[in-house]
Amino acid sequence: MPGAGLLYINAFVIRGEQPILVDTSAPMFREDYLNAAFSLVDPEDVRWIFLTHDDRDHSGNLIQVLERCPNARLITNFVAVGRVGEEWSLPMPRVQIANNGDRVHAGDRELVAIRPPYFDSPATRGLCGTPGRASTTAPTPLGPWCRRAAPAPRKYRPRPTGAGSTGSTASSIPGTP
C-alpha cells in the first residue's frame, strides 16, 4: 500500500468440478485480482464464492465477482450478510448461509465451514475440504487443524425434558457452538 507498507491479502481459486473462489480481495486491487482469478477459471464456470469474512480486504470486489459469475452462489454466514448488507444489496437467492460445521457439496468435494481458533472478525469462517481434498482457511493457514477440528455433521435431537434436565435444546441445533 503506497505510503503504508505491505498488506497481505490471500484470495484463492480452488479448481475442481465446481470451481470455488475464496474471498474477492480489496477494491484497490480490483483489476489485478479479477485478471488473475479469471485467468485461472472462466467466470461462467465458477459455482461458489466463499467469503471468509466481510472486511473489505476480503470482500471488496464481491459485487463485481457476483456480476461476472452468474452461476455462482455466495457462501458466508449470517453476520457477514448483515454487515455486507449495510453497504451493498446482496442477491439473497444466491446466498447460502454456512455456520460452524455446516457442509456444502461442491461437485467432487465436500466443504466444511469452521470457526478457526484465530480470526480478525466476528464473521470469520474457515473452509475445510473433506479428507484428501482442498483445505483452506483464512486469515491463517490451518490445514492440520481442519482435520482435527471440523465438526461432524450434526442433526437436531431435542434433549429430554424429564427430571434433571434443563429443557434447553440450544446446543443441539445445527450451526451452534
Quote the CATH topology. Answer: Metallo-beta-lactamase, Chain A
N to C succession of SSEs: EEHEHHEHEEEEH
CATH superfamily: Ribonuclease Z/Hydroxyacylglutathione hydrolase-like
How many separate structural domains?
1
Spatial ordering of strands, largest sheet: 1-2-3-4-5
Helix content: 10-25%
Taking all Cα atoms into account, the compactness measure Rg is 17 Å
Strand residues, percent: 15-25%
Q: Tell me about the largest β-sheet.
A: 5 strands, mixed
Q: Give the CATH architecture.
A: 4-Layer Sandwich
What structural class should be given to the helix and strand makeup?
alpha/beta
Q: What average pLDDT do the residues reach?
A: 76
Number of helices: 5
DSSP strand tally: 8
Distance between the termini: 37 Å
- Shape by Cα distribution: globular
The CATH C-level class name: Alpha Beta
Unreliable spans: 131-142, 154-159, 164-177
Question: How would you explain this protein's 3D organization?
Answer:
This protein is α/β, with parallel strands linked by helices and about 180 residues long. The chain has a single domain (about 10-170), classed as Ribonuclease Z/Hydroxyacylglutathione hydrolase-like (Metallo-beta-lactamase, Chain A), CATH 3.60.15.10. The protein has five helices and eight strands. It has helices spanning about 30-40, 55-60, 60-70, 80-85, 145-150; strands spanning about 10-15, 20, 50, 75, 95, 105, 110-115, 125-130. A five-stranded mixed β-sheet has the order 1-2-3-4-5. A three-stranded antiparallel β-sheet has the order 6-7-8, covered by helices on one side. Helix 1 links the parallel strand 2 (about 20) and strand 3 (about 50). The protein is globular. It starts with 11 loop residues before the first strand and ends in a 28-residue tail after the last helix. Mean pLDDT is about 75; it is low at about 130-140, about 155-160 and about 165-175.
